[in-house]
UniProtKB/TrEMBL annotation:
Coiled coil: 44-71
Keyword annotations of the record: Coiled coil, Membrane, Transmembrane, Transmembrane helix
Name of the coding gene: LOC102905614
Subcellular location: Membrane
Topology versus the membrane: Single-pass membrane protein
Protein source organism: Peromyscus maniculatus bairdii (Prairie deer mouse)
The keyword Cell membrane appears for this protein: no
Name the UniProt record assigns to this protein: Small integral membrane protein 15
Main location, first listed in the record: membrane
Family, per entry: Belongs to the SMIM15 family.
GO cellular component: membrane
Listed transmembrane segments: 20-42
Length: 74
């Protein structure tokens, strides 16, 4: 049926006999994966920046509340 041990030998033989066809096929299958990875990385970076901005905003708010309470006590 399908011999797992013979498959790597077949791939190496194919790459040796037809390198351009091999690299073209590999690139056709990998390019969409690279594009998806780039898009997801970009979205993750945006989400991290938004979360960081929100945390800074909350921290500033808490600092202002603490200053106001300190002024009230004085």
């Amino acid at each position: 049926m399908f011999d797992i041990k013979a498959w790597p030998a077949y791939v190496v033989e194919w790459a040796a006999k037809d390198p351009w066809g091999f690299f073209t096929t590999v690139n056709v299958f990998l390019t969409p994966l690279f594009l998806a990875s780039a898009v997801l990385s970009w979205k993750l970076a945006e989400m991290m920046e938004a979360r960081e901005k929100e945390q800074k905003k909350k921290q500033k708010y808490q600092e202002n509340i603490a200053k106001a309470e300190q002024l009230k006590m004085d």
